[in-house]
Amino acid sequence: MSEPGKIPLMSGLQAAELPTDESLILASGSPRRAQLLTAAGYQFSVMVAGEDAECGMCSRETAPEMVARYAYRKAADVVSRIDSGFVLAADTVASCVGQILGKPRNQEHAEEILRLLSGRKHDVYTGVCLWSAQQNRCLVDVVRTELEMLPLTQEMLDEYLDSMKWEGKAGAFGYQDGHDWLLVRSGSESNVVGLPMERLLELLENFNSIAETVSTGSISSPDTR
């Protein structure tokens, strides 16, 4: 029998060696991100960033800019509380017809989001920040996946809303829930779940050559690559 909650994309994931001798710390309470890391074979601990790391959307900020900033702030929050550790932080949102779609506030908001997505292509962006506390160096990257949601009937919509599976999920949906009405058109499947595992491997392998030194007290995210 398969592990509860495990999905096909978690099979065959690969892990990279950490670029420093520090222990890996996941700056997120997301069970799916933890599952992806575990499936790939990473050993890590969890230290959840403070809620004030997500300080709202800045004026004219795009979805990629927002997830980069949030990922950076989450990592910075955890780094400020440790002396040593290799911190991994991430933030994910959906974007459709120019609207940034975060986590729904309630069931009515979830329905509004799903009606917007129904029958449309949309993007999911995940910002990833890797930060070595010992070296005081970090990098930020953003990964995009294009999805298409097939038109939802009222019955499909009601069933999903009643399931409450939309809670805590950017765009009010979970690709991992196995719905055949949600299709990946291009990009990483794991990115939709909340952590682009293929890109994470590349970032870890190249961290020492592309990471930047962080200015003391910096709170704004560096340019993404």
Secondary structure layout:
Elements: E1 24-26, H1 31-40, E2 44-46, H2 63-79, E3 86-96, E4 99-101, H3 107-117, E5 121-132, E6 137-149, H4 154-163, E7 182-186, H5 189-193, H6 197-210, E8 212-213
Parallel strand pairs: 1-2, 1-3
Antiparallel strand pairs: 3-4, 3-5, 5-6, 6-7, 6-8
Quickly count the domains: 1
User: How confident overall, as mean pLDDT?
Assistant: 87
Helicity range: 25-40%
Element pattern in H and E: EHEHEEHEEHEHHE
Which parts are unreliable, with pLDDT below 50 for 5 consecutive residues or more?
Answer: 216-222
Count the E strands. Answer: 8
Q: What is the molecular shape? A: globular
| CATH architecture level-2 label | Alpha-Beta Complex
Share of residues in strands: 15-25%
Secondary-structure-derived class: alpha+beta
End-to-end distance, in Å? Answer: 41 Å
Main sheet record: 8 strands, mixed
Q: What is the CATH fold-level name?
A: Maf protein
Query: How many helical stretches?
Result: 6
| Oligomeric state of shown chains | single chain
Reading off the top of the CATH hierarchy, the class is best stated as Alpha Beta
Rg over CA atoms, rounded to whole Å, is 17 Å
Summarize the structure.
The protein is built from six helices and eight strands. With 225 residues, it is of the alpha+beta class. The protein is globular.
Question: What does this entry look like structurally?
Answer:
This protein has one domain (21-213): Alpha-Beta Complex (Maf protein), CATH 3.90.950.10. It has helices at residues 31-40, 63-79, 107-117, 154-163, 189-193, 197-210, and strands spanning 24-26, 44-46, 86-96, 99-101, 121-132, 137-149, 182-186, 212-213. It contains six helices and eight strands, in the order βαβαββαββαβααβ. It has 225 residues and is of the alpha+beta class. The protein starts with 23 loop residues before the first strand and ends in a 12-residue tail after the last strand. Mean pLDDT is 87; it is low at 216-222. Helix content is 30%, strand content 23%. Strands 1, 2, 3, 4, 5, 6, 7 and 8 form an eight-stranded mixed β-sheet that branches. Strand 1 (24-26), helix 1 (31-40) and strand 2 form a beta-alpha-beta unit.
